[in-house]
Amino acid sequence: MIDLIIHTDAPAEGILPLPNTTYSSSDAWFTALADMHKAQFAFQRRDLVEDADDARDKYVARQLFRQVAAEGRYSPSDKDDSDQPRFALYSEDLRPANILLDKDDNIIGVIDWEFAYAAPLSFSSCPPWWLLMEEPESWSPGGLAGWQETYEPRLQLFLSALEGVEKDQTSHSSVGEPLSRRMRTSWTTKCWMRNYAARRSWAFDFMWWKHLDEAFFGPNEDQDHKPRLTRLSEAQRNAMEALVQEKLKEDQDTEITVWTGKEAVSHLAKYLL
C-alpha cells in the first residue's frame, strides 16, 4: 500500500536526493547507506514499529550503524595492492531462478538486473543465502543459529564444487584470491552478517540487536537500545522521542501523505543528526 508521495518538481537543497556520487572507500559507502536507512525510517508510516520501545530500538540501531560506519569500523578492507577501493557490480537477485540454460545446461544468460548496483567487493564474497532457499530472518525453529546450523553443510558442499571449478581454471590466480576462499573467510569472520544487515532493511534490526551490536559495543544483556543511549547526543535523544511519538501516531493514520521536495528535506533534517 502506498502511503507516501514525494513531489520533487521544486529543487530540493541539502539531503533529500539519493546519493549520486562516487566513494573513496567502502566506509564512505556504508556511511551513505546508513543515512538511507535513517531516511527510510523517518518516512515509512505504517507497519514499521510495534510500540514505543520498538521504535527506540530501531532509531538507536540506525544511529549506531552510522557511527561505526563513519568511524571506519563496519566494513572489511576492500582495497587492492594500489590502495584503491574496490567496488564491483552486484545483483541482489542473482540466483538459480534467474539464470538461463540451454539444452546442454550451458549458461546462456542472466535476467532480472533491476536490483543490480555497484557495491563493496566484500558483497560478492558473501556466501549465497539461497543455498537453503529460506532467508535467515525468516527461519524457524532456532532463529539465525538454527539457520546457520542447517545452512553450513550446504555451504561446504557448494564451496567444494566451486573449488573444483577453480582448479580447472588455470588462470584464476591472475585475478586475485579465489572466490571460494573469500567466501569461507566471509562466513568464518561473520562479515556476511554485516553486509546482509546493511543491504536488507527488513532484516537490519534482527541482525543488529541479535548479532552485531555486542561485537561493536560490548555486552548488552537485553539486546535493546537502553544501554546504548549514552552513545547518542542530547539532540539525538530528543529527536528520537519526537520521532517515536510521530511513528506511533502515523501507524494509526490511513491518509496518504504528499510531500514537496522542500517539506521532505525539512522533515528529514530533524532526524539526520
TrEMBL record:
Organism of origin: Sporothrix stenoceras
Top-rank taxon: Eukaryota
Protein name as annotated: Aminoglycoside phosphotransferase domain-containing protein
Domain Aminoglycoside phosphotransferase: 28-151
